[in-house]
Design a protein that fits this description.
alpha+beta; four-stranded antiparallel beta sheet; globular
Length: about 100
């Protein structure tokens, strides 16, 4: 059975300025991009701060948020790790840009 979920994603930059880490919020699925965007806009500051705290504790101190938004993930149920396709991302925050 194939399911589609709209989820928040973030891209964190390691302190070396070269490596990136993608984070997807699996615990907070949305039915549509609009629902995801509304939630993001209502909670942007907490979401951005929270993902940096998460990155610093899970990966490495000094992580920087470079991008955040909503993405579509296809869950196939066949044991494969679900991933998003960058073409399905709707960016709501990009470091250095007003999105």
């Amino acid at each position: 059975m194939i399911k589609v979920a709209i989820l928040l994603y973030a891209i964190l930059l390691y302190p070396d300025g070269e490596r990136e880490q993608q984070v997807i919020s699996w615990n907070l699925p949305f039915q549509s991009y609009q629902q995801c965007q509304t939630f993001y806009l209502q909670n942007a500051t907490n979401l951005k701060n929270g993902v940096v705290v998460h990155g610093n504790s899970q990966y490495e101190q000094g992580m920087t948020l470079t991008e955040m938004g909503c993405t579509k993930v296809i869950l196939t149920g066949n044991g494969e790790i679900p991933r998003d396709d960058p073409k399905n991302r709707v960016v709501h925050y990009k470091r250095g840009e007003g999105v």
